[in-house]
């Protein structure tokens, strides 16, 4: 037995139990879905797709992958699904490579406005392969659709990415589709953050508007770390070939089984009520923080997340992240629109309620969290606040393996 690793995993499990994560991209995997990650499926090689593999012994793997695909198709209301992409950043590169030639123009939201690294940030390989033109948020922190339409006409992109990592509002999928169509561009919806809320009917779906939809599976969906690429039938072959053999080798079959189970669990009234509680909690937390004098980018949220602009408080995002982590609340530093500070030490923090809602915290606890956050940012006694968070976490245990 590797006692060192065993003890470290035990310590991490205890940390997760005793702290509260408001990191918007984190959640707790369904315990049953987690169990399949450690199954015999991890031993198998299965390059290719059901019925056409490059290794023998894949009849059962075929059935598992087909189940994951069928469940995703039904849940998201899409025509074709690839379940093999290993992560979100990888999946985005796969999509670009499937639909574009290198050097083609992509329009997306820049990282400092809420986009993702793989949406063409200069540090991401995506920006070396494609030409990115970033659209902007307006002064209120929402997407300026009029400006976007004008820009699209001017730069004539081949692809437009909508769907973000640090943007709290509903996305006008129909207008995005109209703009993309008007310039002959593909519309790609990156719903990595909000997929669980969309299938829980707490947010609008891009299914009838986007050419391709990408989501990671470990955020609001509560699955293992992985990704789904969904598209219209006509694009299926391009996408599948870009995954394998284009950019990946053997799929992680243990993860695919775990994704299949996750998709079965993310259904029905119970899931819808979870999704609603995530949004309700985010809105309550945002309101409570506003009452305490904090500025929320765009004035609120329609989703699980919010960005707090700490300029007025004269605390950097990194400093706020440290102060809160010190008392057992995890948030992530975040740029604010048109941030004068760099991404490593930006002007804001991003908070999300998916994980705390999984633990069962509700509106009442959001008021308490807002008050603790305020007191921590005002540097009140850490020991007392740490204790308050530990007690709250203990009251809402989460099933961890
Ligand atoms: N790291 C994820 C997030 O926090 O949004 C995206 O990759």
The CATH H-level superfamily of the largest domain is Type I PLP-dependent aspartate aminotransferase-like (Major domain)
Q: Tell me, what is the CATH class of the largest domain? A: Alpha Beta
Q: Tell me the distance between the termini.
A: 18 Å
Count of DSSP strands: 15
The geometry reads as globular
Largest sheet: 7 strands, mixed
* Cα-based radius of gyration, to the nearest Å: 21 Å
Assembly classification: single chain
The number of distinct helices, counting runs of at least 4 residues, comes to 15
Question: What percentage of amino acids are in beta strands?
Answer: 5-15%
Major sheet strand order: 4-10-9-8-7-5-6
CATH architecture of the largest domain, by name, is 3-Layer(aba) Sandwich
SSE pattern: HEHEEHEHEHEHEHEHEEHHHEEHEEEHHH
Bound compounds, each kind once, are: D-serine
Uncertain parts: none
Percent helix: 40-55%
Describe the structure.
- The chain is α/β, with parallel strands linked by helices and 401 residues long.
- It has a seven-stranded mixed beta sheet, sandwiched between helices.
- A hairpin with a 2-residue loop joins strand 2 (48-49) and strand 3.
- The protein is built from 15 helices and 15 strands.
- The longest helix is centred in the C-terminal third of the chain and has 24 residues, at 268-291.
- The site of D-serine has 4 residues, from loops.
Write the layout of secondary structure elements.
Blueprint (H helix, E strand, L loop, with lengths): L2 H16 L1 E2 L9 H7 L10 E2 L2 E2 L5 H18 L3 E3 L5 H12 L5 E5 L16 H4 L1 E5 L9 H11 L3 E4 L10 H10 L3 E5 L4 H5 L12 E5 L10 E5 L4 H12 L5 H13 L2 H24 L3 E2 L8 E5 L7 H10 L2 E2 L1 E3 L13 E5 L1 H5 L4 H15 L4 H14 L6
Parallel strand pairs: 1-13, 5-6, 5-7, 7-8, 8-9
Antiparallel strand pairs: 2-3, 4-10, 9-10, 11-12, 12-15, 14-15
Helix pairs in contact: 2-10, 3-10, 4-9, 6-7, 11-14, 14-15
Bound molecules: D-serine (DSN).
């Amino acid at each position: 037995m590797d006692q060192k690793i065993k003890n470290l995993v035990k310590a991490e499990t205890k940390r997760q139990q005793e702290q509260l994560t408001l990191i918007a991209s984190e959640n707790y995997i369904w315990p049953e879905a987690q169990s399949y990650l450690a199954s015999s499926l991890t031993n198998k090689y299965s390059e290719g797709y059901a019925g056409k593999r490059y290794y023998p012994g894949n009849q059962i793997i075929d059935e598992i992958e087909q189940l994951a695909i069928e469940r995703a198709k039904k849940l998201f209301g899409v025509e074709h699904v690839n379940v093999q992409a290993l992560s979100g950043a990888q999946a985005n590169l796969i999509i670009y490579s499937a639909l574009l030639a290198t050097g083609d123009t992509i329009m997306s939201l820049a990282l400092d406005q809420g986009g993702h690294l793989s949406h063409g940030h200069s540090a991401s390989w995506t920006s070396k392969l494609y030409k990115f033109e970033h659209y902007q948020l307006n002064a209120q922190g929402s997407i300026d659709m009029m400006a976007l339409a004008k820009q699209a006409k001017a730069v004539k992109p081949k692809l437009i990415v909508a769907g973000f990592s640090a943007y709290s509002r509903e996305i006008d999928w129909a207008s995005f589709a109209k703009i993309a169509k008007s310039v002959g561009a593909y519309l790609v919806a990156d719903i990595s953050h909000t997929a669980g809320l969309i299938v829980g009917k707490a947010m609008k779906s891009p299914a009838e508007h986007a050419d391709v939809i990408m989501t990671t599976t470990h955020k609001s969906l509560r699955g293992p770390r992985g990704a789904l690429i969904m598209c219209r039938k006509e694009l299926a072959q391009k996408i599948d070939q870009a995954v394998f053999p284009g950019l990946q080798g053997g799929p992680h079959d243990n993860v695919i089984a775990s994704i299949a189970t996750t998709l079965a669990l993310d259904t029905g009234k119970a899931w819808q009520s979870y999704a609603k509680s995530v949004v309700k909690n985010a809105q309550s937390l945002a309101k409570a923080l506003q009452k305490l004098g904090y500025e929320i980018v765009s004035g609120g949220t329609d989703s699980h997340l919010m960005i707090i602009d700490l300029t007025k408080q004269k605390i950097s995002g990194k400093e706020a992240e440290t102060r809160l982590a010190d008392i057992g609340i995890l948030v992530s530093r975040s740029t604010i629109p048109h941030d004068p500070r760099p991404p490593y030490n930006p002007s804001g923090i991003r908070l999300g309620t998916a994980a705390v809602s999984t633990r069962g915290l509700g509106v009442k606890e959001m008021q308490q969290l807002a008050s603790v956050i305020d007191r921590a940012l005002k540097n009140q006694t850490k020991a007392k606040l740490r204790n308050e968070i530990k007690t709250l976490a203990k009251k809402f245990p989460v099933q961890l393996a």
